[in-house]
Amino acid sequence: MKIRVASLITIGMLFSNSPAAWAQPFQQNYVEYVALGDSIAAGMTPYGGYDESYPDMLKDMFKRKSTTMKDYDNFATSGYTSEQLKQDVQNNSAVRKELREATHITITIGANDLFQRLLADPSTAQQGIDTASSNLDVILETINELNPHAKVYVMGYYNPFSYYPDEVQNFLVPLSDSLNHEIETRAIENGDRYVTTAQAIDSKFEKYMPNPEDNHLNVKGYEAIAKEFWKIIKKDD
Fold it and tell me: Where is the signal peptide (predicted)?
């Protein structure tokens, strides 16, 4: 099925502007939390601004748990691709320093690799997924080398195409599912945790994604994502 690039033009707004890591129980009475990723982790809203992000909310959840928040750094950047994040993890001294010291790390990355391909030529979309998968593998391997005891949580995306007509979704949603499958596979292979968010967002997309022209979440949507992360974090700690 061919999809005209013109029908995908709003996609340009989407998410833009080792097992040893789990072998040792988490025994610190403090948290050093690092967030990495794209505009979802940065807290971009459906109308182009920024508000409280899901990492901000997780920071507050740690505090309410009577845990000492020793440090919190959110390096998420709107429009980031997996290649850009890989470069940061491999070469950015500030990012690497915080990763070495982190007790908890969250990652949201890969959607922009897919969306860039969809905009350029929908027939090459799978290449974007493959690139995201390969780069995420390197990102997770590098983090494990820097800090084998950090707990790493990797996010799966909700459906960003919910407002599209069915005939368009029939082409796009399987690609989004494929991206999530690769993210989950890479997380598991590296001994990290995969956090699914689709079940929390997709059935309530009009509530959490109120602007049909933009696929970012409102604060309530980010709160729903934070709760999905927290379910897993609580079990691990």
Answer: 1-23
**What are 141-183's pLDDT values in tens digits?**
999 999 999 999 999 999 999 999 999 999 999 999 999 999 9
- CA-CA distance, 137 to 14, in Å (whole number)? 23
DSSP annotation string for 162-229? TTS-HHHHHHHHHHHHHHHHHHHHHHHHTT-EEE--HHHHGGGHHHHS--TT-----HHHHHHHHHHH
Q: Confidence band (pLDDT; 50, 70, 90) for 208?
A: very high
Q: Is residue 5 scored above 70 in pLDDT?
A: no
Q: Can you tell me the distance from the alpha carbon of 12 to that of 4, in angstroms, rounded to the nearest whole number? A: 14
Question: In the 8-state DSSP scheme, what is residue 29?
Answer: S
Q: Roughly what angle, to the nearest 10 degrees, separates helices 219-236 and 54-64?
A: 50
Q: Using CA atoms, how far apart are residues 132 and 195, in angstroms rounded to an integer?
A: 17
Mean pLDDT of the 117-121 span: 97
Q: What is the pTM of this model?
A: 0.89
Is 79's pLDDT higher than 60? yes
SS3 content of the chain, % helix, strand, coil (to 5): 55, 15, 30
Domains detected in the chain: 5-236 (3.40.50.1110)
Residue from 224, 79, 75 nearest 158 by CA: 224
Neighbouring C-beta atoms of residue 153, cutoff 10 Å: 22
> Residue 43's CB: how many other CB atoms inside 10 A?
23
